[in-house]
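Tokens as discussed.
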């Protein structure tokens, strides 16, 4: 929880901002700025999980099928994931503060547009704008942590911020369900838009970017060089295994918490909207404390990958069990178990950080985050299509959805284990040339 002791000799990262004070932050200031910076991430967590509670009223107002709901839930994540490459470049060239301040107003605009949406098409456009605006929200936090905290604290601090960001999911549990029943789903977007304005103002006023003293005379990287660096990351043999797993892990959690939890409880077990919101709230509370716990339990590089693969297979088994569960108590218990075990995903961040040269930390995290949220978008769309097809065949749609999620998790774990791994001794000193 302290800045590196010798910033003058620390390796220069292209994530160093172009302007800013030359002195490192004190631990207290680093934590304060990180929490304020994380407010945008907190709201992005709220935006990405609204579908679970809004699904029923949206389907009623716009006459949406399960597949259309999957498209609605996936639109945010597709835009969010697709923009990670450009947000990573923006952080590297313009700094994390400037990047988030330029992008986040689009989330505010998208929330307002969604609240006013006269049709499903306008609602989708609003979701895309929200996804673009939120695209740098967690990425800037990981880069800030990598630059301002000791390397051995990366997993623990990242886990703490993931837990803090889960407060956003609390908003889309019982509070959002209550607000929708008292007013409408549109009011949910208005409230999130207002909170986003507050978060943007706090970041603008309170967050500043220190830089290592050595950055003062360093040459600026060109846009072309930054883009070619991404190509170099993709050419590294161990990138594929990291990406394959990233596509399915967080996607499985968001598919449950952000889309299928509410419909499953209401349609399979007759829960009310408020009761479903209560389950979502409890699951989120559990998920808040899970990442910090797993961050502290990080076994280190020697065993970390075995832990990641093992917990992925365990969560896959839980989804398989959820597909066959016909008892409400068992389903709720399985939901809570998935919420608790979701914390292991924080171990993927130090795994990625240790797999690439320090000079491209920002872009390596951007590539990982891009894969993670494109995976969320694909899983939302795919499970929506699977549910619609299953209904037409007279099959329980939730059985089909949860079995598919479990199979995807198992496939991701297999790819992570069997595909090439990062060098065991140390990360490579340079990237392969991308042409």
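Sequence:
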């Amino acid at each position: 929880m302290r800045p590196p002791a010798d910033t003058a000799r620390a390796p220069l990262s292209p994530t160093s901002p172009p302007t800013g004070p030359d002195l490192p932050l004190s631990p207290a200031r680093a934590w304060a700025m990180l929490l304020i910076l994380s407010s945008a991430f907190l709201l992005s967590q709220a935006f990405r999980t609204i579908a679970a509670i809004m699904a029923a009223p949206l389907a009623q107002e716009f006459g949406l099928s399960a597949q259309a709901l999957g498209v609605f839930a996936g639109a945010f994540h597709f835009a969010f994931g697709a923009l990670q490459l450009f947000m990573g470049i923006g952080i590297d060239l313009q700094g994390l503060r400037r990047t988030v301040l330029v992008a986040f107003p689009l989330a505010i605009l998208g929330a307002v547009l969604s609240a006013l949406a006269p049709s499903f098409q306008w609602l989708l456009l609003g979701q895309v704008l929200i996804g673009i605006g939120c695209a740098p929200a967690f990425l800037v936090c990981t880069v800030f942590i990598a630059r301002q905290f000791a390397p051995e604290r990366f997993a623990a601090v990242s886990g703490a911020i993931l837990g803090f960001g889960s407060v956003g999911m609390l908003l889309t549990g019982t509070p959002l369900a209550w607000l929708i029943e008292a007013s409408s789903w549109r009011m949910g977007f208005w409230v999130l838009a207002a909170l986003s304005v507050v978060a943007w103002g706090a970041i603008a006023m309170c967050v500043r970017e220190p830089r290592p003293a050595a950055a003062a005379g360093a040459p600026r990287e060109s846009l072309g060089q930054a883009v070619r660096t991404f190509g170099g990351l993709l050419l590294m043999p161990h990138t594929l295994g990291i990406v394959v797993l990233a596509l399915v892990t967080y996607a499985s959690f968001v598919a449950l918490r952000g889309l299928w939890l509410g419909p499953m409880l209401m349609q399979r077990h007759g829960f009310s909207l408020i009761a479903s919101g209560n389950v979502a709230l409890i699951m989120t509370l559990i998920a808040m404390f899970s990442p910090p716990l797993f961050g502290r339990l990080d076994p280190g590089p020697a065993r970390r990958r075995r832990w990641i693969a093992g917990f992925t297979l365990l969560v896959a088994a839980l989804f398989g069990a959820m597909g066959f569960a016909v008892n409400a108590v068992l389903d709720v218990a399985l939901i809570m178990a998935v919420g608790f075990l979701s914390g292991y995903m924080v171990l993927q961040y130090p795994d990625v950080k240790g797999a690439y040269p320090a000079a491209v930390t920002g872009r390596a995290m951007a590539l990982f985050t891009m894969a993670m949220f494109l995976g969320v978008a694909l899983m939302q769309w795919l499970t929506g299509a699977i549910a619609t097809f299953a209904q037409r065949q007279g099959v329980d749609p939730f059985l089909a959805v949860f079995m598919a999620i479990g199979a995807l998790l198992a496939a991701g774990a297999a790819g992570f284990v069997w595909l090439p791994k990062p060098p065991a001794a140390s990360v490579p000193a340079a990237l392969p040339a991308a042409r």
